Amino acid sequence: MKITTFNPQIVTNNAEAIIKLFEELGFERRHHQEGIGELDVTGTRMKTENGFYLDISELNTPLPQNMVVIRMNVDDFDEVFDKLISLGFRNIYGDQKVNTKSAKSAMMISESGIAINLVQHIK
Asked: What is the dihedral of CA 40, 63, 70, 88, to 10 degrees?
């Protein structure tokens, strides 16, 4: 298993307010994508001049509150997905995964509440 990226991610229904907050803290917008997967997620990647990354994802599905998760990009999605399942994590999308031309992902959560957005970029 090879982890290629590891950084915080905020999942919300109001990305613009959170983006503005982090811009005030020195983050700059680096990448923005709309209509991600069947769940129609909007994603914004931000970065500081020191190289710290933050991802902000906006869902159309109502959330009771914002979620702070760990975004973990890996080189073998299926291997790490199975490993997380064996460690007691579950996919909050049930049997679904977010599939696009360039990535596959699933939001995994442990019984204790640790949330990992597992992502593999397809090259």
From this structure: -100
Rg, Å, the chain Cα set: 14
Q: Are strands 53-58 and 67-74 parallel, antiparallel or unpaired?
A: unpaired
Alpha-carbon span 117 to 5, nearest angstrom: 11
Residue 22 is predicted with a pLDDT of: 97
Tens-place pLDDT, residues 7-33: 999 999 999 999 999 999 999 999 888
- Helices within 2-122 (DSSP H only): 15-24, 77-86
Which tokens is 57 given?
A: 């994802």
pTM assigned to the model: 0.85
> How far is 100 from 9, CA to CA, in rounded Å?
19
Taking the C-alpha atoms of residue 4 and residue 27, their distance in angstroms, rounded to an integer, is 21
How far is residue 74's CA from residue 21's CA, in Å, rounded to a whole number? 29
